[in-house]
Amino acid sequence: MNIRVLKEIIAEQREYIDSAVTGVERDVLPLFEKYVKLPHTVVVSGLRRAGKSTLLCQVMRKHYKNDCYYLSFEDERLLDFTKDDFNLLYEAFMETQGEKKVFFFDEIQNVPEWEAFVRRMQDRGFKFFITGSNASLLSKELSTKLTGRCVTVELFPFSFGEYLRFKGVVFENDPLTAKKKAGLKKECSEYLTEGGLPEFLKYKETVIQARVYEDILYRDIVSRHGIKEIKSLREMAHYYISNVGKEYSYNNIKEMLKLGSENTVKSYTGYMEDSYLFLSLNKFSFSLKKQNLANKKIYCIDTGIAHTMAFKFSMDHGHLLENMAAVELRRRYKDIYYYKTDDGLEVDFLAKEQGKYILLQVTSDMSDKKVREREIAALTASMKELKTKEGFILTENEEEDIKIKALKITVIPLYKWLLSVKP
How far apart are CA 256 and CA 270, in angstroms? Predict the structure, then answer.
């Protein structure tokens, strides 16, 4: 790299970041109150265009008054940047901005073996905040490369609360008048189809969601992993996004797309999950082997992308509601599954935290007697098998408490649950 070019990029990006609008304060921002005090590298990972750069900007202004170095590796002039150029980059920073002790690096996964520079400078007392659009940034392997001195934050598209703040909607949970409830239901319905990508919400052009989808497939997967069967990858992605909330197996996908092996399906699915396009749920079992062998369920990380990119006739409203709940659960809990009882009754979600099980069903409404009986039967059977006394049913409108002997089922509108604390 040429140091003159690096200085130009640094100056241009600095001017942009200093004048950037920081937007809605993200729900994860309070985490940085304690992370800035640690010597550890802070790793922020998440979907493309979910707001990672804006989050960095919020941290820079709130905690460092912009007294830090910043560089985004998304700049096309840095395509040939390698790990050997980091010393030259540091020199360019020093010459243009003086000596600082904190680095902010955006989309650093574009530079192979970047960890060596971070580890060396960290040993000298420098602090790093880095972002990337790949879940490998959160892996145990990375923690090993940085000798265990990193903390991680996952950033998802806007939560419902962030979505409301973005739109300037002021709300308080109690008391909710009939008018406020109606307003929140309307907003939740729009959130369901629009999703939480900040740029899309600003301009309301579906081409933005489509571009994120295409960039993930081509820039994050095809280019990075050298995929040759591009048509198969696209068909697999389109099948998944058109069938959110449904079960799949590697073998069924292999047969449907006429791929050579299940390993190819497993690899492609893993790449899409690592890039935060999809999340897969295992069927819960106390046996890890049974978990791995059972069918999985697939969800898209943003309901807006799913609504725009899916084959429209296959997109069921109930499954879109279920998808929204899946993403919110993933935001709240690390370990989530679906559950089937010994008799084959299914519960949409099981979240596990500190040995406690949280069971949730999702249905658009329970006015139909058969639907009501089905949802309650599956939930109560699961609660008995797992020896837990509380479960939840998320609906669009209904709200009630159902008690069956020692068991309690809380029926709660989705909009209200999305704005609540755990579970």
Answer: 18
